[in-house]
Design brief:
The chain is α+β, with helices and mostly antiparallel strands. The chain has 2 domains: 141 residues, Four Helix Bundle (Hemerythrin (Met), subunit A); 225 residues, PPM-type phosphatase domain (Phosphatase 2c, domain 1, 4-Layer Sandwich). Helix content is 52%, strand content 16%. It contains 11 helices and 10 strands. Helix 2 runs antiparallel to helix 3. The protein is rod-shaped and about 120 Å long. The termini are far apart.
Amino acid sequence: MRAATAPLRKLAELLLLRPGPYARAFDSLILALILLSVASVGLETIPGLPAWAIEALRIEEICVVAVFSFEYLLRIVAAQDKLAFIVSFRGVVDLLSIAPFFLAGLDTRWLRILRLLRLLRVLKLQTHVLEATVAERTRELVSKNVALEQAQAQIKAELDVARALQSAILPALFPATPRCDGAARMIAATTMCGDFYDFIELPHGRIGLVMADVCGHGVPAAFFMAVARTSLRDFAAQFSDPGACLAHTNQTLCAQNPLDLFVTVFYCVLDPATGVLRYANGGHGPQYLRRADGSVGTLDGAGGIALGAMPGVEFPEHAVTLRSGDRLLLYTDGVTEACNSADEAYGPERLIAQIQAHGNARAAFIVERICESVTSFAGTAAQSDDITLAVLAWDER
């Protein structure tokens, strides 16, 4: 029995179960026959049809019912639970669409009304074609979702690597220097960070400190951050004047800036032998200096023009002398502009309060306390900007 039905099962799989050109052609054939059969129902009601037309309709009826009967047989063969298919709505529709032809052979007047059940072939079309279309679209959607998930996983993996590399290029420790201690922290708002800080060991024991903020977020800002940091480091080794270093870095960034990005930079150079801090500001916000007596003030020269925005800009140099117990705080606006769920900004007042409260501690402790304060203030609110800060502690003893 199984051997006898094996060819029919293979044919049923080809025409009904497997999506492909043969299945689509078979569906198109069934559609055409349904429309032809429905049209013949209307033609049969026309009185006075010639004999040749009646004969043509009879032949058409035989051919259509033969194809529908063959299709019904194939669906029974293809069904896993044959009895369930036969008594299902779809199976009943298939059966009723061919039953009037066979029952009409009894020539009972009331049975001729069953000829109108041929119209149920339209339901048959709707069920079979619609189910096949939905199944095909579902398979396509599943396939595309799988491909999308794989692509997203690959992108995430690559971004994770890029983020790790970005963090790795920034110094983890402050250069070992008598009398001073430094620490920094960077918290990205997205996978990649546009902020950056840097500690640069310069000739004659001097140390360069950088705090910078690239406009925007994400991958473009991260790439521009890498270019800006590399350029600034190169010129820092060539020019002892912070203003000259920023001016040459600005020229380079203006010449290599296809996306028209810019970066605000605060750059200072500390001479550990004297405590003199010389600095220049390229469009960055005010940076804070806490004196040993607890007073907190901003360094002169805030504002100016960001690097990469306009060529030929000069950056004035300023200087201040650090005394024992002083603390220098460098930060980006992601600290003061962090918002809580009520859309209230952290603000400079809270930052100054943290500096005053913990200003006698080591640099790493101050950085940790400020980060905890900002995080606690923001609560469940989403981080909207990169957060970066660095602290330099000066102690002569």
